[in-house]
Amino acid sequence: MSRTYFKDELRLGTRGSLLALAQANWVKSRIKEHSPGVKVTVVHIKTRGDKIDFSLSQVGGKGLFVKEIEEALLRGEVDLAVHSAKDLPGLIPEGLMLMAFPEREDPRDVLISGDGKSWRDLPRGGRVGTSSLRRRAQLLHLRPDLEIIPLRGNLDTRLKKLSALKLDAIVVASAGLRRMGWEDRGSEYLDPEVMLPAIGQGALAIEGRRGDEQVRQMVAFLNHPQTQACVTVERAFLNRLEGGCQVPMAAFARIDSDRLALTGLVATVDGRKLIKGKVEGSLEKSADLGEKLAEELLEKGAGDILREIYKTR
């Protein structure tokens, strides 16, 4: 008679930043609540993105915060990886799969200014810190007079640099502030109509080994189907455009009743040209919406922007 074996220990791989650890420990606590008999250990893994001290767009960006963690997964050193979904490249390595997407946190960007001003009220020529080309392009599209200052480091480091570099403001992801309990630091939460979020922003992605059915079943309760649908269609948009941190690109999906709406954009780095579009469809037939929107933007001129950007990189 065969006996079913239940895994009694899980090792969660994550980066060592305060935010990454907060996210991994949240997943750990949820698993412990759901399966009290399981031992859960958080394993810190240093990624290439944690070691460099210059803009991610200069070295490819996407994947720099996940590659070493994925390699540890493939070697069997950890059982799961906890990622910020926006850090994931479009393609998942062979042998791995995304097992769960917990319910999405606030996907918006937030502007933090020393005196609580909004983006409209920043002084002419104001200095705004961000190393995201997506944020840079959209800020310059709104306010061409602003000076964008490269801003590297973990969330806590960037908050310190607001005063250390004498910046008028910085822009970060709202989800990070909220997960750290620092939401009161935000001066203005930017509506997606003003600043379209990064693909997957606000969502966590739990990655494991393909075929590891025990582990998949143990984290299945964490999956939020609506979040999974939205992030999946956003990532389809990313894949069709073969985008990364070198390209000012954004996409954000929402579900209203049984309809899914996806908004996306591609812009030049200086924000002078910004191509934006939106598609909608029933939730049951939403799988191809990402590719559909990408094709529409390519027809509107996004292809020319992408070719020019990659030609100069």
Features of this protein?
313 residues, alpha/beta, D-Maltodextrin-Binding Protein, domain 2, 5-stranded mixed beta sheet, globular
Structural description of this entry:
33% of the residues lie in helices and 23% in strands. 45% of the residues are buried. The model is unreliable at 1-5 (pLDDT under 50). Helix 4 links the parallel strand 6 and strand 7 (147-149). The strands form three sheets. A five-stranded mixed sheet has the order 2-1-3-10-4, sandwiched between helices. Strands 7-6-8-5-9 form a five-stranded mixed sheet, sandwiched between helices. The protein has a three-stranded antiparallel sheet with strand order 11-12-13. Helix 8 (225-241) packs across helix 9 (289-312). The chain is built from nine helices and 13 strands. The longest helix is centred in the last third of the chain and has 24 residues, at 289-312. The chain is an alpha/beta fold and 313 residues long. The radius of gyration is 20 Å and the shape is globular. It has three domains: 9-102 and 203-223, D-Maltodextrin-Binding Protein, domain 2, CATH 3.40.190; 109-190, D-Maltodextrin-Binding Protein, domain 2, CATH 3.40.190.10; 235-312, Porphobilinogen deaminase, C-terminal domain (Double Stranded RNA Binding Domain), CATH 3.30.160. It has helices at residues 18-34, 48-51, 67-74, 133-142, 155-164, 174-180, 213-219, 225-241, 289-312; strands at 9-14, 39-44, 80-84, 96-100, 109-113, 127-129, 147-149, 169-173, 188-190, 204-209, 249-256, 259-267, 274-282.
